[in-house]
């Protein structure tokens, strides 16, 4: 269970910044639940009440869901005698552990049912809970374990009954689905598909669950591809790997089709054909396609070509995870931005490689004709030397060759380090730019003093993408607020900036008028007139204006 | 949103229906490909079980065949025959060959005789190597004789196909390999026979 995160501010500093952090949901302080509540109510509020933010209800749900998924995997492995037989006791312990957790969960929910809005108004709240669909599912998931102590149940039947545990996931899925349905009332089928697969304000929890589902499948399928290469494992789990790969391809194909179909709801992709083509050309979509392509190519072309090597490309599924992290998009931006410099650096490297290979061939060919047979063969040695790898399988033996190698190896250290240094500094720079952009966005958002739901969502997403901690977001908000206050004090701004905004100009004019009036009150009028009428003073028109303002 | 007066969801449009049908078609194709792959996988598993049966039988035979009165006498190291040149009762031992042993193994009631190649539903056939380009080799079994090389050699042993004329009068190492559904080799075991 996560420990409550606290923002590092003093009590007296609990100001509007903290309020904003709470508003955008970045501050993860725990729910404020009265300690003096009756124990049952207190427990329900902490553990099961979905209406209280920042209690442990979501954590309980997510841990139970994880345990259910683990149970599903365990059930699959139980069908593999080579795995099940030697580790029977571990499987049994895991089953016992699961049953204990699920039983505790069942009785906790039963005991606290009287606090639930759904059951508390019933005449027999416990009975109503016991006969509710979720409670029946919960009971079914543990009952076979206890029943087998009294009745002899066929192992296959027992496993089937244990499969019912997966139904417990509906406790998470159904509320998410209901929320999604409510949010998408009156929207078209395509818009709903879009809300499910793309980040939008209509996605809700179901969209997060969909993302989690895809991420889990990516991880599972990549682990399967890696393990498939281990002979001892693939020998035992060959059939399971086939089934798993087919299901994974099914999931990814469905996701791909949904993305292509509904992308026209995305801004900039509205056209039916061109929009979809534009979407299909996006890097993330190409990765999605590559994740499923090996399966289909093999299915269609395996009679014509040996496409086994294609299977390794299934590892590209890992790249699908880049959709869920902003780090790779930052890196892509950096490479695109620094491309001319990187290109120049690559050109110098290429030049150096060709030069080194040619000199290597020139000096070493006669001494080692089998190793430095021609320039293309010498390129391998040149690259290994310049990149400071130095396998040592090919090395110069002539004095000239060795001298040249010393010089070129030293040059190589510098030249080959350039791209790394460039990328590193550009990456830092890009992060700074993106944080600056977020700060500007915060600045704009604070113009009305309110951060609405959409703005909070943007801040949340950006903070997550840029891996900003609570403290960093807090600092950015402080800075934006400070800048905003500075802007509000328009007198401090240069005149041309005030003039750019008519409202500011009027405000400034009013301030000036007020100052002139104050001046009229505070100064000695006779002396003022005398100086004003002297040679270095005011023009008659200016003096007239002075009189007019002070009279009014 | 007002729950008492829910907004009606728009009906499915033609593109929606086309999308749903396309997705169902793709998933059906996927299901069919998966079932084909699954049934091929099951056949490969059966081929592996065949190889394991052979490995198990050969290992068992390897421990027993040097005993006198070994049941499958054709797989014993030597055959005892009476000396026909002289009219004496003398007998002499001649080494048996793999061909004699194989014939006995592949004849009922030997348990191995009942094993079949699941890809063609025919009795198991033996070959020299798996070849991906030759589909007729799927489910093939390869028995190779491992001959130790002199100490200091780069390779600990050399492999050669176990042929019918090979003598089995001494302990020998046999490597068992089978060809999978794409005629790629799957190593099963190395046994002492």
In brief, what are we looking at here?
The complex is a heterodimer of chains A (552) and B (193). Chain A is an all-alpha fold and 552 residues long.
The CATH topology of the largest domain in chain A, please? Answer: Four Helix Bundle (Hemerythrin (Met), subunit A)
Total helical elements of chain B:
2
Give me the CATH superfamily of the largest domain in chain A: Voltage-gated potassium channels. Chain C
The total tally of domains of chain B equals 1
Class inferred from helices and paired strands of chain A: mainly alpha
Q: Kindly, what is the distance between the CA atoms of the first and last residues of chain A, rounded to a whole number of angstroms? A: 70 Å
Tally of domains of chain A: 4
- The whole-angstrom Rg of chain A is 35 Å
- Strand fraction of chain B: 15-25%
Taken in chain order, the helices and strands of chain A follow as HHHHHHHHHHHHHHHHHHHHHHHHH
What does the radius of gyration of chain B come to? 28 Å
For the report, how would you describe the main beta sheet of chain B? Answer: 4 strands, antiparallel
Main pleated sheet of chain A: none
């Amino acid at each position: 269970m996560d420990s409550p995160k606290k923002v590092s501010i003093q009590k007296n500093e609990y100001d509007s910044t903290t309020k904003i952090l709470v508003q955008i949901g970045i501050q993860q302080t725990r729910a404020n639940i009265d300690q003096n509540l009756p124990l049952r109510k207190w427990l329900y509020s902490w553990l099961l009440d979905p209406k209280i933010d920042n209690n442990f209800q979501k954590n309980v749900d997510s841990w139970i869901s994880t345990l259910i998924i683990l149970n599903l995997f365990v059930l699959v492995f139980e069908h593999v005698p080579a795995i099940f037989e030697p580790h029977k006791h571990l499987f049994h312990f895991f089953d016992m552990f699961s049953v204990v957790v699920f039983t505790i969960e069942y009785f906790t929910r039963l005991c606290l049912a009287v606090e639930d809005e759904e059951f508390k108004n019933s005449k027999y709240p416990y009975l109503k809970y016991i006969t509710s669909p979720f409670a029946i599912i919960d009971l079914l998931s543990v009952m076979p374990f206890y029943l087998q102590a009294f009745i002899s149940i066929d192992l296959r039947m027992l496993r089937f009954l244990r499969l019912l545990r997966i139904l417990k996931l509906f406790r998470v899925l159904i509320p998410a689905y209901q929320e999604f349905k409510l949010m998408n009332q009156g929207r078209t089928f395509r818009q709903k598909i879009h809300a499910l697969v793309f980040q939008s304000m209509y996605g809700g929890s179901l969209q997060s669950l969909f993302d989690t589902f895809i991420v889990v499948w990516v991880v599972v399928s990549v682990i399967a591809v890696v393990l498939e290469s281990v002979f001892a494992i693939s020998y035992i789990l060959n059939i399971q790997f086939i089934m798993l790969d087919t299901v994974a391809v099914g999931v990814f194909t469905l996701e791909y089709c949904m993305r292509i179909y509904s992308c026209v709801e995305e801004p900039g992709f509205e056209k039916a054909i061109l929009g979809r083509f534009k979407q299909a050309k996006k890097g993330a979509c190409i990765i999605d396609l590559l994740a499923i392509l090996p399966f289909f190519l093999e299915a269609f072309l395996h009679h014509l070509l040996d496409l086994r090597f294609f299977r390794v490309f299934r590892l590209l599924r890992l790249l699908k995870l880049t959709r869920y992290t902003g780090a790779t998009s930052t890196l892509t931006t950096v490479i695109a931005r620094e491309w001319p410099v990187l290109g120049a650096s690559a050109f110098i490297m290429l030049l150096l490689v060709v030069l080194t290979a040619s000199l290597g061939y020139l000096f070493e060919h006669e001494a080692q004709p089998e190793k430095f047979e021609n320039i293309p063969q010498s390129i391998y040695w040149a690259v290994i030397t310049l990149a400071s790898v130095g396998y040592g399988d090919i090395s110069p033996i002539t004095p000239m060759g060795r001298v040249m190698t010393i010089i070129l190896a030293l040059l190589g250290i510098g030249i080959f380090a350039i791209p790394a240094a460039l990328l590193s500094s550009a990456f830092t720079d890009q992060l700074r730019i993106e944080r600056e952009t977020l700060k500007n966005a915060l600045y704009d958002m604070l113009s009305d003093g309110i951060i609405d739901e959409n703005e909070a969502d943007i801040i949340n997403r950006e903070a997550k993408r840029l891996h900003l901690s609570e403290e960093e977001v807090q600092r950015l908000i402080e800075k934006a607020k400070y800048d905003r206050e500075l802007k509000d004090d328009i007198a401090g701004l240069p005149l041309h900036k005030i003039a750019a905004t008519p409202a500011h100009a009027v405000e400034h004019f009013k301030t000036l008028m007020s100052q002139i009036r104050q001046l009229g009150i505070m100064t000695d009028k006779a002396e003022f007139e005398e100086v004003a009428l002297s040679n270095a003073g005011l023009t008659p028109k200016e003096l007239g204006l002075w009189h007019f303002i002070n009279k009014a | 949103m007002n729950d008492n007066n829910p907004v009606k969801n728009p009906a499915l449009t033609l593109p929606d229906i086309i999308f749903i049908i396309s997705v169902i078609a793709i998933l059906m194709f996927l299901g069919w490909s998966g079932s084909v792959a699954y049934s091929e996988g099951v056949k490969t598993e059966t081929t592996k079980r065949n190889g394991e049966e052979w490995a198990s039988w050969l290992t068992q035979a390897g421990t027993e065949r040097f005993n006198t009165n070994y049941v499958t006498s054709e797989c014993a190291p030597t055959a005892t025959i009476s000396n026909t040149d002289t009219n004496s009762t003398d007998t002499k031992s001649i080494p048996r060959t793999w061909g004699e042993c194989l014939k006995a193994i592949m004849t009922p009631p030997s348990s191995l005789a009942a094993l079949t190649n699941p890809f063609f539903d025919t009795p198991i056939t033996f070959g020299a190597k798996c070849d991906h380009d030759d589909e007729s080799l799927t489910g093939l079994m390869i028995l190779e004789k491992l001959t130790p090389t002199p100490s200091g050699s780069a390779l600990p042993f050399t492999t050669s196909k176990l042929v019918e004329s090979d003598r089995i009068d001494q302990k020998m190492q046999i490597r068992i390999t089978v060809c999978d559904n794409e005629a790629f080799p799957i190593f099963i075991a190395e046994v002492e026979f």
